[in-house]
Design brief:
single chain, mainly alpha, Helix Hairpins, minor pseudopilin epsh fold, 2 domains, three-stranded antiparallel sheet, 8 helices, 3 strands
Length: 211
């Protein structure tokens, strides 16, 4: 949380082929090593030219950017958001295993959406509704209420005062090598690799005041 300039592209928390057969190894190499790396490089270039911003964390940059002149604001939001959103996406996936939350977080999902199936249906519908590029998110508002939202391009829930729990990247580069233009098939497969343990820990820490 305290990381600041120069930012680095951390290794994935699993091997590139760990999400097979649902997300292919080649896509993971391209997505992490090229797309995310480009956002990291672009963000560092912006900050190199603006030393007054170099001590800010990624989250602080995203929240502070709207106060800056447009010529800095837009590229900063795009690239800081690109780093944030991609890291969040990669960190909340894992090798296929438990395909739904367990324990107390399962209760919260059922309380918010009626059932896990309803959550899946609503999350998938949100992801399909994104026109062009963006994300579907599971978030918590200030009182812990669970919601599903969408964001365009590299916008984040942080600027909406929402706490992110899980995101589904629906930029075409996230799925095109395996699924071509079949976004529904990618969404269906993504549900098999969600790391519900980290999502649950994130939410429970948030509602208990640790974040």
């Amino acid at each position: 949380m305290s990381e600041h300039y120069p930012f680095v592209n951390y290794p994935l928390p699993y091997s590139y082929n760990a999400l097979e057969p649902y997300i292919d190894e080649k896509t993971m190499h391209l997505h992490h090593d090229r797309h995310l790396q480009t956002y990291v490089d672009n963000l560092n270039a912006i900050l190199k030219a603006n030393p007054q911003l170099q001590n800010m964390t990624l989250e602080q940059l995203i929240l502070y950017a709207p106060t800056l002149p447009a010529n800095i604001r837009t590229p900063l939001l795009n690239n800081a958001g690109g780093v944030y959103n991609h890291r969040f996406y990669f960190d909340n996936m894992t090798s296929p295993g438990i395909d739904r939350p367990l324990g107390i977080f399962a209760f919260y999902i059922n309380q918010a959406f009626g059932s896990f199936q309803n959550f899946e249906d609503q999350m998938a519908a949100a992801a399909l509704s994104v026109f062009g590029s963006g994300y579907a998110w599971l978030v918590a508002d200030h009182d812990g209420t669970l919601k599903i939202i969408t964001t365009s391009n590299q916008d984040t829930p942080l600027s909406m005062n929402l706490h992110p729990l899980l995101n589904l990247d629906v930029w075409e580069h996230a799925y095109y090598l395996k699924h071509y233009n079949n976004r529904p098939a990618y969404i269906h497969n993504w549900f098999h690799v969600v790391n519900w343990k980290t999502v649950s820990q994130n939410y429970l820490a948030f509602i208990n005041g640790y974040t």
